[in-house]
Design a protein that fits this description.
It is a single chain. With 113 residues, the protein is α+β, with helices and mostly antiparallel strands. The protein has 2 helices and 6 strands. Strands 2-5-1-6 form a 4-stranded antiparallel beta sheet. Strands 3-4 form a two-stranded antiparallel ribbon. Strand 3 (53-58) and strand 4 form a beta hairpin. The longest helix has 20 residues, at 17-36.
C-alpha cells in the first residue's frame, strides 16, 4: 500500500549548524536505505511557507493568496512517497526519519475507493 509522508517542521525550533549537518547526513542515509529496500518511491524538500501560494475558487471566481493555506508555526518541509505492506510498517519507516526527532512525520495512506 502507498503512503505519503509529510515531513513537518516547526518555525519555533532552531538547530545549530552542527545539528543541521548531522540531520542532513542522517536524512541522506535514511533516503539511501529506504530507496535501496524498495520502500521509498519518491520524495523531495519543499520551499518554505513564505514561498507558498494558495488558490481557491469560490462562486466561479479565482482567489489567489500569497502564503500557506493555514497560519501556523508548523509547516510541510518535504514529502516522501513510500510503499509498505501495512500501516505498522509505514509507521516504523516514518519513525526512522531523522526529522521525527525534532519535527513530525505525518503518515497518510493513499485514498482507495
Amino acid at each position: 500500500m502507498k503512503y505519503m509522508l509529510f515531513i513537518c517542521g516547526d518555525e519555533a525550533i532552531t538547530i545549530s549548524p552542527e545539528e543541521g549537518r548531522e540531520m542532513g547526513e542522517a536524512t541522506e542515509s535514511w533516503v539511501d536505505s529506504t530507496t535501496s529496500r524498495g520502500i521509498r518511491l519518491q520524495g523531495d524538500r519543499l520551499a518554505g511557507p513564505g514561498d507558498a501560494t494558495t488558490v481557491r475558487v469560490r462562486d466561479g471566481e479565482m482567489l489567489v493568496a500569497d502564503g500557506p493555506f493555514a497560519e501556523t508555526k508548523e509547516f510541510i518541509a518535504g514529502f516522501d512517497i513510500i510503499e509498505c505492506a501495512n500501516l505498522d510498517e509505514a509507521i516504523e519507516v516514518a519513525a526512522a526519519h531523522p526529522v521525527s526527532r525534532f519535527g513530525a512525520v505525518e503518515v497518510r495512506p493513499y485514498w482507495q475507493p
